[in-house]
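tool_call: predict_structure(chain=1)
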Amino acid sequence: MLVPVLLLAQMQMCGVYQALGPEVFSQLVRGVSIGKLKTYQVYERFKLRARLVKLNSESLRKAQARFWARIESGEEDFATDLSQVFLLSHLDMIVDILNFLEIPNEQGFFDKDLKAEQYLTPGWQERVFEHFSEKYRREILLFYINHLDWELNKTDNVFLPAA
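tool_result:
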């Protein structure tokens, strides 16, 4: 059975955002692709979860402070939905990274029972960051590296390379 790479244990998402900080969060919100949300049929669900009457780039930008307040208050369900929105908006990057790490996947999705040890060898975060830092925005790259680490390794550490 295949599970989307986008899933993360709910109790950890607010912590990921908080560790990355409000500036990274703001950039993640700005990188949302409304078209991809519609393609993957999460547009309406997220619009409701985000408590927005209209979901577009402007309404997202205006809602950033409210979204951050919800993250700081620990709304894990919202944080999880938001992570799916961010990652669906950058699915090409996910496929590139999974292929680089040689993690078997089908267009960004992998088996939920995948054993990560053989793919996520020591130093993998640094290798991924260095390899893709010229191709993808720093914010989404850092978010996905940390997301993948939590999903597969269940780690409590946050990867933040020197700026």
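agent: Residues 51 and 63 are 9 Å apart (CA to CA). Proceeding to next step.
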